[in-house]
Amino acid sequence: MRIGTFAKELVSTARQLATPGKGILAADESLTTLGNRFSKINLENTYENREAYRSMLFTTPSLSNYISGAIQFDETLKNKTPEGELLQNILKKSNIIPGIKVDKGLSLLSNDETLTTGLDGLEDRVKYYYSQGCRFAKWRGVIKISNKTPSTLAIEENANSLAKYAYICQSNGLVPIVEPEVLAEGDHDIDTCAEVSTIVYSAVINALHKHSVLFEGILLKPNMIAPGIKSQKKASFQEIAQKTLETLNRTIPPAVPGIMFLSGGQSEEDASCNLNEINQINKGKGPWVLSFSYGRALQASSLKAWHGKNIKAGQEALLHRVKMNSLATLAKYQKENGNGESLHVSNYSY
């Protein structure tokens, strides 16, 4: 098995990323997505502004106290600080493991369902990213819940793509973050989300087995189990935590070192509260480190505070959010009654 060449390194990297009390900063937004966010603060979507924003994030003092890894977009590998140092080197010096998004986005499969593209040429890209210092990768598979979806085709095709991606990454030294996201779109209740997520996660794990992926050398990035965004049946933090843990315990092998939840459009506070409740209920039970790989739920306040020029304010806002989520991984977070603004974006893509 080709993975054997990198087995020890993969396991070591996965464990470092899943360090208790730390999480992952997902800063892998595409040019279009970052442009949409810049438009909300009336900032032009230029290379210089994107570079300045990423520099603000990655040079935040003490960031490594709470962040173990950072997922980047391809362009970020070329970005530098105002002093001319590559951001990639800034991460390494801070003991933050550099990661990279390797998929190419979503394509239509059938019936408004999608399949993630990017397997063509993936091995060469992974080898290049490894040579540039990246040590983990991310690939997002998307599943929708509706009266007609998800179809068996969508579940199986996305599971197989995630497994192929994972094997290619491990064969060339990158820890794959496996991200099966059951979208929050729709009016379904929490039980439906749990039912669909159980089927999806099981299909993904089965596909990973078939492709001989090393489970000790991956991380899972799933959705939390919650009602659809338009559901009339809301759920408490405790209900979401209980259903999430129940679903994971039924589907995910103990060999997986870390489960790094996606925020899925939750408000900054809700993402922290739900993570805290999950760890509160699971405290002392194991088997995984239960942490975060958030994008919007870490960056929203920071982006507003930065506003294109205020580096200190942006960094203070980011540091606050990563610290709050670090506390949540240890079941020590206290609700702040602050920013409960939903960050949901319909049919989100990056």
Structural commentary:
- It catalyses: beta-D-fructose 1,6-bisphosphate = D-glyceraldehyde 3-phosphate + dihydroxyacetone phosphate.
- It is an enzyme of class 4 (lyase).
- Pfam families: Glycolytic.
- Keywords: Glycolysis, Lyase, Schiff base.
- This protein is an alpha/beta fold and 350 residues long.
- The strands form 2 sheets. The protein has an 8-stranded parallel barrel, surrounded by 8 helices.
- Helices cover 43% and strands 15% of the residues.
- The longest helix has 21 residues.
- It is globular and about 50 Å long.
- The chain contains 11 helices and 10 strands.
- The two termini are 33 Å apart.
Shape: globular
CATH architecture descriptor text = Alpha-Beta Barrel
Tell me the name of the CATH class.
Answer: Alpha Beta
Beta-strand content: 15-25%
Total E-strand runs: 10
State the separation between the terminal residues, measured CA to CA.
33 Å
Domain tally: 1
Strand order of the largest sheet: 1-2-3-6-7-8-9-10
Please tell me how large the radius of gyration is: 19 Å
State mean pLDDT (0 to 100 scale): 95
SS class:
alpha/beta
- Number of distinct helices: 11
CATH topology: TIM Barrel
| CATH homologous superfamily placement | Aldolase class I
Low-confidence stretches: none
Helix amount, in percent? 40-55%
Main beta-sheet annotation: 8 strands, parallel, barrel
Pattern of helices and strands: HEHHEHEEEHEHEHEHEHEHH
